[in-house]
Amino acid sequence: MITYVSVGLLALLSLSIPVGIVLFLLGFGIDVFFSPFPLIKGLGQMVWSSSNSATLIAIPFFVLLGEILVRSGVAARTYEALDRWVSWLPGGLVHANVATSTMFSAISGSSVATAATVATVAMPQAERLGYDPKLFSGAIAAGGTLGIMIPPSINLIVYGFLTQSSIPQLFLAGLLPGILLAVGFIVITVIICLIRPDLGGERRVFPLSQMLGALVHLLPIIFLFTMIIGTIYKGWATPTEAAAVGVAVAFVIAGFASGISFKMISDSLLGTIKVTSMIMLVVMGASFLNFTLSSAGLGRELKDFLEGLGLSPLAFILVVVMIYVVLGFFIETLSLMVVTIPIIVPLVVAQGYDPIWFGILMIVLIEMALITPPVGLNLYVVQGARKSGKMSDVMIGSIPFVCVMLIMAAALIAFPQLALYLPSALN
């Protein structure tokens, strides 16, 4: 059955069938070939129960929040402000890509939205200033992955929903690793550009007056992040309620920034509908697939297989890491999470690991999948924003940042408190 699911998934994805539909088709196949029961009768209940959750309402709110800030020009001004503060480092404007991705991640919750926003704003600058396209575009693709680590994160919301974990604790747990990843991206860029200065472009130093004046454009993002995360941890609002308030504040910011037009609102709502529909189709399809897999006994087979290996807890988690690294090459990230969480997480918890910690480790591995071919979504987003050049440029440019993610995964395994310190301190 494992072979059927793996081969079937790859074959259907190779036909460019939408991921959500692929998951439903695999579920139907398991029903027909592997189950003595008519599992299709449970389809309606599975679709309803997987989507009937107040927690998931936060997803369209966070997507809409990001859409509003992008289309109102707030994101572009944030990029220009950070350019004045970090372009003196070896690598120049490449660091503005990472810094802007970090700040936008703090209010977006989506890696794709973060990568698309920064790529749209940054790519014209790269061409004008003569930056190496590989490193420049790779930094944008990698920086965009921070959108699912730094809170508020849509993927962490989905993880919390599927594992019944505390979403506020997951948000806290992702904050420090997210910041460390951003710092790691900057450090690896500095090292590369010290060795090969021609890759980094011109280092620019701005007058102090311009640097200080640019800070005003960072205030909207800082205020939004503080308000969303602060209200959650003060207990004033749930993540869903905080997201709704964040959308309202984003409209106010957009009004002061450039005015609110009918086109801006309609484009933001349309973008939100497209992204949310994709996410929910994947969630519902994966829920049905998980239902058929568990009914047909795959979960028991996998559990027996892993337990039969007789591994120590450390060896077990290393095997799980390898599974996610390999699957990440071929499976879209949200689908990978939703399909594997019901099977893998109980086994990990049975080994004595904290589910909050494992959620952050999983997100690091999912981030890696976003920038590794052949289905690394951020690679295609950045290449689409470039409108020229070879796809291989973005792939090659992402390699140093994949190495940073591997180091972070190793650090989380060696030092679990990197993820657990803030949640435990809050408690």
Name the shape in a single word. globular
Number of domains: 1
- Supply Rg: 21 Å
The tally of helices reads: 21
- Please report which band the strand proportion falls in: under 5%, 5-15%, 15-25%, 25-35%, 35-45% or over 45%: under 5%
Roughly what is the average pLDDT, rounded to an integer? 82
Distance between the termini: 43 Å
Uncertain stretches of 5 or more adjacent residues = none
Structural class: mainly alpha
Major beta sheet, specifics?
none
Helix content: over 70%
The sequence of SSEs as H and E is HHHHHHHHHHHHHHHHHHHHH
Q: What is the number of strand segments?
A: 0
Subcellular location: Cell inner membrane
Main location: membrane
Function: Part of the tripartite ATP-independent periplasmic (TRAP) transport system.
Family: Belongs to the TRAP transporter large permease family.
Describe this structure in words.
The protein is mainly alpha-helical. The protein has one domain. It contains 21 helices and no strands. The protein has helices at residues 2-14, 19-33, 43-51, 58-71, 74-86, 94-108, 111-129, 133-144, 154-163, 167-195, 208-214, 219-233, 239-257, 262-296, 298-308, 313-328, 333-350, 355-370, 377-386, 391-414, 417-426. It is globular and about 70 Å long. The relative contact order is 0.16.
Write the layout of secondary structure elements.
Elements: H1 2-14, H2 19-33, H3 43-51, H4 58-71, H5 74-86, H6 94-108, H7 111-129, H8 133-144, H9 154-163, H10 167-195, H11 208-214, H12 219-233, H13 239-257, H14 262-296, H15 298-308, H16 313-328, H17 333-350, H18 355-370, H19 377-386, H20 391-414, H21 417-426
Helix pairs in contact: 1-2, 2-14, 3-14, 4-13, 4-14, 5-6, 5-11, 6-7, 6-8, 6-10, 6-12, 7-8, 7-19, 8-19, 8-20, 9-17, 9-18, 10-18, 10-20, 10-21, 12-13, 14-17, 16-17, 16-18, 17-18, 18-20, 19-20
